[in-house]
Amino acid sequence: MTEETPITTAQRLQPQLVDHFMHLIGTQRLSHAYLFNGMDGTGRQDLALTIALRLFCQNVTSAGFPCGQCAECRRIIAGDHPDVIRVVPDGQRIKVDQVRYLKAEFSKSAVEGNQKIFIVDQIERMTTGAANSLLKFIEEPVGNTVALLLTANKNLILPTILSRTQIVDLLPVAPKELAAALAEVGAAPSQQNLLATLTESVAAAQDLLAEDWLKNAQKSIEHWFTACCQGDERAFVRVQTDLLPLAINRDRQGILLDMIVQIWHDALRQQTGAVDPQTLTYPQVAQASQQIAQRLGVDRLVVVVTLTLATRGQLAGNLNFQAILEALTLQILAQIPRR
Q1: Domain 6-169 - what CATH class?
Q2: Cα dist. 18→81, 98, 148, 149, 312 in Å?
Q3: Where does the signal peptide begin and end (predicted)?
Q4: Is the distance from CB of 116 to CB of 83 less than 8 angstroms?
């Protein structure tokens, strides 16, 4: 099998957008700032790299695509071109030194020609101050520069940046294609719906499945959820005994919070009518989520779901993970009517 390149991956995942941007470059109508919005696995990095390749390619094909083989293309793919500036988070955040590097590069002209491109992935992981530092560049670009800002969730981006960039929503991975790919890497049917809400990247899904992490996390959250539904205060204890051991790093803490959102979203879905349990993210506790949906009613259930959604922002604000979950558990228990 031929190994995929950023160009072929982008064409496979986002064919219409690739054609669109190749046409914009060919007709010299490319804007200077874009925000690509798409979950992991949708090819946002590959699309951005394909644009960079096309801008610098020495042997553009007759169809208007970068060749991927010339010296300029090879340097870009290897991450060795001085006028293609790429930044990705170092851990949970885009760090201060990375922001300093970006700001310094913003003020410089191209090194080897008259074209320069910035690709900043997961821009939602920038601090507010760092994100604001982008505004001056976006508003007053130096020379012939293009900024491609990439995110998995545009709702986390500052409105001032949204209003100054052209927002491009990437096509999601087709559900059937994703389900088949997840099955191929060992995801059980009861895990596939949940995984599809957490990532569209098969590689990321494999990482979650490794060493039964997802299986154990799913089971622990089901036990915690069941205790919450019963108004059992031992749900609070389960945070420390069951959930904390799974929170091995900041990324996994975020995944656990997303998984908690999904189990309560299952209940909200069942509040609105009959739902096939096999379409839920937690089919094993379908009966429990249906019962709590009936007991709480829509208003209280919306309160609970809203509380779970707020936890991601709390984690991004560097609040302690255990404190976030314990506070959430107490708030949920306060919503459960006593029998």
Answers
A1: alpha beta
A2: 22, 29, 14, 16, 32
A3: none
A4: yes
- Contact call for residues 116 and 110 (beta carbons, < 8 A): yes
Domain ranges of the chain: 6-169, 175-335
pTM for the whole structure? 0.64
Tokens 């031992």 locate to: 234
Identify the burial level of 224 via C-beta atoms within 10 angstroms of its C-beta, where 0-12 means exposed, 13-18 middle and 19 or more buried: buried
Kindly list the distances between the CA atom of residue 64 and the CA atoms of 23, 26, 37, in Å, as whole numbers in the listed order: 8, 7, 24
- Residue 78 and residue 49 in contact, taking contact as beta carbons nearer than 8 Å: no
**Which amino acid type is present at position 95?**
K
Residue tagged 């803490």 (tokens): 253
**What is the reported pLDDT for 1?**
39
Of 307, 9, 233, 31, nearest to 145 by C-alpha is 31
CATH code for the structural domain at 175-335? 1.20.272.10
- The number of residues making up the chain comes to 339
Residues of the chain with pLDDT under 70: 1-3, 91-92, 339
What are the C-alpha distances in Å from 210 to residues 42, 111, 216, 259, 338? 22, 44, 11, 17, 40
The CA distance from 330 to 332, in Å, is 5
Q: Are 178 and 200 in contact (CB under 8 A)?
A: yes
CA distance 289 to 338: 17
At 92 the pLDDT is 65
Give every strand in the sheet of 145-151, ordered side by side.
84-87, 116-120, 145-151, 33-37, 166-169
Q: What is the model's pLDDT at position 3?
A: 67
β strands within the chain, DSSP E: 33-37, 84-87, 116-120, 145-151, 166-169
Radius of gyration of the chain (CA): 23
- List, for residues 255-307, the tens digit of each pLDDT value: 999 999 999 999 999 987 778 988 899 999 999 999 999 999 999 999 999 99
DSSP state of 113: S
